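Troubleshooting: if your tokenizer reports a length mismatch, compare your output against this known-good record of 226 residues.
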Amino acid sequence: MALLKINALEKHFRTPEGNLQNVLNIDSFSLDAEEQMALKGQSGSGKTTFLHLIAGIISPDSGTILLDGHPLHALSESHRDRLRACTIGYIFQTFNLLQGFTCLENVCLGMMFGSGLDKKKAAALLGEVGLGNYLQHRPSQLSVGQQQRVAIARALANQPKLVLADEPTGNLDPELAQDAMQLIRRLCDESGAALLLVSHDTELLGQFEHCRDLKDINIPQKETEA
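Known-good structure output:
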């Protein structure tokens, strides 16, 4: 059963010259519940824009996005925020941790916008990613790999149905990248969450049974005069 269904999706951005640049033009795309898929694309190909549209962080210019049966494209901003908090976990390339808060607080803050604050559950999840002894550490006191694990724990804290991962290993060395990818996939598998990962890392992409190239589903158009 499809968890995510996209049809006739288009997104434009205005260039510094004032022209409209079509970034995404996707006829159709779907992702089943509990499916794990990788999406290949080079820098500037629209990968992050695609994930932001799915998450409801930005809105499409046209087209439909059905997330768990909800028409994301038609919801108000507040309704999109609530749906995202309860349905989606997002792992950003730059982690986006709040530097003034501890590991535990970073995960707890994510829970407050979704399922509700549960410190014991947040601590248990940090323990599961190997950070049980770092609950009171701030991001600046952690290695890059440890910060990534906090970001993974935060993304899974609300038991999302869909996890979006934007170049999640882009800031890690190869060994840490392998460990982080295995952790993300294991936790998604155990929780029953679907996973949509975007990357240009061919070694990482090769680990996925289901892998698609963004250029095969996206037909961007040239700039047009506004």
